[in-house]
Design goal:
By secondary structure, this protein is an all-alpha fold. It is built from 16 helices and no strands. Helix 3 packs antiparallel against helix 10 and helix 5 packs antiparallel against helix 16.
Length: 366
């Protein structure tokens, strides 16, 4: 398994900020608020903030694991520790997780377009259009994917500022009093908030493409911090705008807030918001899919990346064309979210412990 990367295919260390942040800012921004109130209710923003800080510990574990590998990725770690065949099987399992996560992001975005914008256009038409766009981006290589991630962070950041318009409708009493819930309630809200922080685990695959990994660490942590602050602020703004009784019945709270914004020259501002969000979800899909393709390529060297990409996009198109029921979306979401929970808080800590033991054993003289 040769995963060494040529320097002309690498990106500068500061791009890790955009790669980390863009993978976490996906479709979840539009609907997570109505889910996290199940536990701590109006104090769920505390869980969102605390979970974001916890991601820094997970990232530290990831960096430690990668430091103990021969090629700075989880693929070589699997081979070094578990052997060619069992390590390859683990790589394929990770591929399935990455591919499913990318599929779920695209599936939900198409659902948003059908509900909020063009309900007369069939799912397969959206799917075909996006599949062509995704193919063009990923076929261009990791540097193109990074460029999309950069613009997927910069441009939507200005759109997110529009949420500040809701401050004139804010009701401070909606988020008071503080610290009135049990610890378990905060854990429940944290579990519901986890999906919005998924995505950065793909660094386990693309980290070899970052120049000077030691310098890049701080940019990764800054990306996580930016995500944490963004979600915390959005959560607080939402709670200031909606009462808990109303919020629990909303499917897309962020879009509902955006609907109140209007300009003399633009009445339906949420349309601009939704179309701009394509720049946000595209890096998520492309990085997940690119990571899945690279994992297969390094596990099965004879496999051609272009054929793998076409095959996965064909599966995406088939699913998005024929499995359009809400029940399927909920099932796919449950699978991805549960897999992400196990991956972040189960598998990564396990590999972290394995890497520590392995390092200590290497120091023990024969």
């Amino acid at each position: 398994m040769n995963s060494m990367v040529k320097e002309n295919k690498m990106v500068s260390p500061y791009f890790l900020f955009f790669l980390m942040h863009s993978t976490q800012t996906g479709i979840g921004v539009l609907n997570f608020q109505s889910k996290i109130i199940k536990g701590a209710e109006h104090e769920a923003w505390i869980s969102v903030f605390a979970l974001g800080l916890l991601m820094h510990i997970i990232f530290f574990m990831i960096l430690y694991i990668l430091k103990q590998t021969s090629s700075r990725d989880i693929l070589s770690f699997h081979k070094d520790v578990f052997g060619k065949y069992f390590g390859g099987a683990l790589n394929i399992i990770i591929t399935c997780y990455f591919a499913a996560a990318g599929l779920f992001t695209l599936h939900i975005y198409i659902d948003v377009l059908e509900i909020w914008v063009f309900d007369g256009i069939n799912s397969w038409e959206y799917s075909l259009l996006f599949s062509i766009l995704i193919f063009y981006i990923i076929a261009g290589g990791f540097r193109i994917v990074t460029a999309i991630s950069f613009w997927g962070v910069v441009i939507p950041s200005f759109i997110l500022l529009s949420l500040l318009f809701v401050l004139k409708y804010a009701e401070v009493t909606y988020i008071l009093p503080l610290f009135q819930h049990r610890v378990m309630d905060y854990f429940i809200s944290g579990k519901e908030a986890l999906p919005i922080y998924l995505g950065f685990e793909t660094v386990l695959v693309f980290y070899p493409f970052i120049k000077d990994g030691e310098r890049a660490k701080k940019w990764g942590h800054l990306g996580l911090l930016n995500t944490t602050l963004q979600y915390t602020i959005i959560t607080i703004l939402t709670f200031l705008f909606f009462s808990q009784g109303k919020l629990v019945h909303l499917t897309w709270p962020t879009l509902t807030m955006i609907k109140i914004i209007s300009f003399p020259f633009l009445e339906r501002f949420e349309f601009i918001f939704i179309f701009t969000w394509l720049l946000v979800i595209m890096p998520v899909i492309c990085i997940y899919l690119w990571s899945a393709i690279r994992t297969i390529k390094l596990t099965i060297p004879k496999a051609k990346p272009t054929f793998i990409l076409i095959g996965l996009l064909a599966i995406y198109h088939f699913v998005n064309s024929y499995f359009v029921e809400m029940e399927f979306s909920l099932l796919l979401g449950e699978i991805v979210n549960y897999s992400g929970l196990v991956f972040l808080f189960g598998y990564i800590p396990f590999l972290f412990i394995v890497s520590i033991v392995r390092k200590k054993l290497k120091k023990v003289p024969n």
